[in-house]
Amino acid sequence: MQQSNRLRPFFENITFDRADNEMILNFGPQHPSAHGQLRLMLHMQQEQITKAHPDIGYLHRGMEKMAENMIYNEFMPTTDRMDYIASSSNNYGFALAVERLIGLEVPRRAKVIRMMLLETNRLMSHLFWLATTALDIGAMTVFLFAFREREYLMDLIEDYCGARLTHSAVRIGGVPLDLPDNFIGDLRKFLDKLPENIKDYEDLLDTNRIWLMRMENVGVISTEMALSWGCSGVMLRASGVEWDIRKEEPYELYDEVEFNVPVSDKGDNYARYKLYMAEMRESAKILYQVIDMYADTQPQLMAHAPQYISAPKLDIMTQNYSLMQHFVLVTQGMRPPVGEVYIPTESPKGELGYYINSQGGAYPYRLKLRAPSFWHTGILTDLLPGHYIPDVVSIIGTTNIVFGEVDR
Amino acid sequence: MRAYTPKDNVQKKPYYTDRYWVAPQVAKHDVSSDAVFAEDLEAIKAQFDVLEAYIQVDQMVVIINPADNFAVIEMLKNERAYNQLSEMSAIDWLADEGKFEIFYQMLSMTKRKRLRIKCKIDEKESIQSVEKLFRSADWSEREMYDMFGIVINNHPFMKRILMPDDWEGFPLRKTYPLQGDEFAAWYEVDKIFGKEAREIIGPENRDPARIDRYDTERFARLGHEVPRGTDISNGEPDTPLVYQETEGVFMIEKFDAEKSVVISDRDR
């Protein structure tokens, strides 16, 4: 027996001495297809899984605790580190929650830019998902193709905010910067080529024999199971529930743009793959519409709410009261009213919610991050039994979990 | 005299407070202002005690007795079409009133409504699991136990989820410091090498930018590398850079900045 305060070399990976011939296999936490730090304890009968225990927490940084010790604006860069594949959507979810708490209306140009950021982030996330999942299954070409397109989007984001991965490109009350001159032209160029690119991926995968064998009728999630496990996003829509927060509880300008919500009732890996592809096309459609909205907006980027939001830089540099107010907001932080909100947004992975309990102080009294991947990892407990070892890889792939937000 | 710091809430406090400042409130609306919520509330009231109910930021908040939590959520799920438990967790009010507040964030997809069920329990009190109704509560309740130490009755696998199994203390309680307590600071050392190794290894360096100029055990200046443990209190000798391929290596061309081309056009 291992002593609790010593680590000793012992064969912890495989246990053979079970009377019922059951093998316990540790999958991860360093397994390359575990998409980060996921450890799965799998009980196996030969190759078939009888029981699965996902073990998480290897990337736990205590973000909720950190939030209780930070002013609201200070927490924004921390949200980047949740779903680092699409960090603007995390920034946005937090900004929206605080804005609803304060009761703030954001200027239209900021909304348009946020929409662009959100949808480019969705594309980035979906491309990344496709690349890594295809790589796990063995499709190297798709990986290289999808990363090429993602690279272009990252360059675009870099042009906007200077960062490629952790953007922090949204502020509470608006956005910090206007679009650079080349942004819309470059985005349009990318969008014009995107359908071609998506068709390339689909030509490679859709009828690929290996892809179909690994995807079709593997990892079937029933509607009841998806609802019960709190699934959201593609995981829910692939199981036949038409629920997209952008459509049902619209925020920003999602009620002004036209897009479809792709749904499938198959619930298997292949359905999820098809939905990701369809969603990329819908995102492109939204982006085209948002680009057209940009031209007739006023140049104001941040909401005017002196109690909570700093004045524009020009005012800070020229007007005494703006400078004083900025100083107070930076050193002490804004103090939202007493109350609580839970604001869900549709992040690329699913329902990303922020619960904020404010007691009128500069620090949130309690902040709960509702990350979709947390439950998409939990569902593996019920999903994996009955499947075989190779299926584990493709199922983890299509659940699209990111451990930054599972562990927070 | 040392300044008094409260022990029951060690979270960061603002250093400046305005004693005349009155915090504004987020408006609480009457439930009767929304027909759908009013109906739901009637249904809850018909069977259970409702301590308080209001609408805040478009969502209904219903405060119930903790003993009713399972029955209320079961009723909402089966009769009122609240088909998803999107989130649940606790809030630590131990410093103020010695209680935990537990909230269940529910979603009805057919009605497009979200409501929050809340109840308060004492520190040592446990609460009924709703895992039988929503599997998502399995992990949420484990997280709640892990972070607050709230014990759940009838949970199938009541075990820590994010922290290690042998962790001491509950990180999200207000009494738990942000930097961690002593147990947390020495956790790895104690576990791997034993308590007696604490003095040899020393405390963890929490400042990633900290560089000890004379520490040759962990750090060497580039271009001035010396063997491990050398005394360099009088400065270290230069280590001139030597390249293996001075004579040229088969197939490898030396980098020539003059010949390199910077690609400026991003067209693919």
Describe the 3D structure.
The complex is a heterodimer of chains A (408) and B (268). In chain A, 49% of the residues lie in helices and 11% in strands. With 408 residues, chain A is an alpha+beta fold. Chain A has one domain (63-407): Cytochrome-c3 Hydrogenase, chain B (Orthogonal Bundle), CATH 1.10.645.10. In chain A, the strands form two sheets. Chain A has a four-stranded antiparallel β-sheet with strand order 1-2-3-4. A three-stranded antiparallel β-sheet of chain A has the order 5-6-7. The two termini of chain A are 33 Å apart. Chain B has helices at residues 35-47, 69-78, 94-97, 136-148, 182-185, 187-192, 198-201; strands spanning 28-29, 50-56, 59-64, 84-93, 99-108, 113-122, 127-128, 152-153. In chain B, strand 5 (99-108) and strand 6 form a beta hairpin. Chain B starts with 27 loop residues before the first strand and ends in a 67-residue tail after the last helix. Chains A and B meet through helix 1, helix 5, helix 8, strand 5 and strand 6 of A and strand 4, helix 4 and helix 6 of B.
